[in-house]
Amino acid sequence: MKKKLLILILALGTFYSCAPTRVVVEKNKYEDFKLSNYSSFDFAQIDLPSDSLVPYQEIVDQLKASITTAMEARGLRHNVSDPAIKINIGVVVEDKVQTRETNVTSDPFTYAGQRSYYWEVREIPVNTYREGSLTIHFVNNAGNVLVWAGTISEVVPKKPVQTPTAIQDAVDQIFEYLDINNK
């Protein structure tokens, strides 16, 4: 029994470790991009009034710190005055509703008396959640040309204390995608 359980756990672990990435990149568009071709980076300047960023400043700061760590780990240095590549960050958070379809076995119809009714399949809400999308654009500073763009979407944790871990996970997945697909 223990041997079968161990084999099942190993099989599931292998299956999940081979799961596809959640990073979305336009197919066949950025195959020439290699992060190793650049020596320095900086973040694109934000052209919004500073007071509109106040609610998101902590998240933006966490994203910049995680991206800086990932870029420096790949040999690029942070250079504010003349970077080879600029990084533009986009964040969108949406409230979503999880639904399920009704069916006769789980949502049976009830009746009494005359049968003057009908039953139909419909979507019913079962949960609400927030989904966040992080988009990263790498822009060649010399020609001001987009050289790579990728997006990752995940469920935003309900507890604010879990937000830094979720941000780090999203950034890690983007750079893992880059490491695998853009050598």
From TrEMBL:
The UniProt entry, under Pfam families, shows:
DUF4136
* Segments crossing the lipid bilayer: none
- Start and end residues of each DUF4136 domain: 31-176
Question: Sorted alphabetically, which keywords does the UniProt record give?
Answer: Signal
Taxonomy, superkingdom: Bacteria
Q: Give the signal sequence positions.
A: 1-19
User: What Gene3D superfamilies does this protein map onto?
Assistant: 3.30.160.670
Q: Please give the name of this protein.
A: DUF4136 domain-containing protein
Organism (species)? Algoriphagus jejuensis
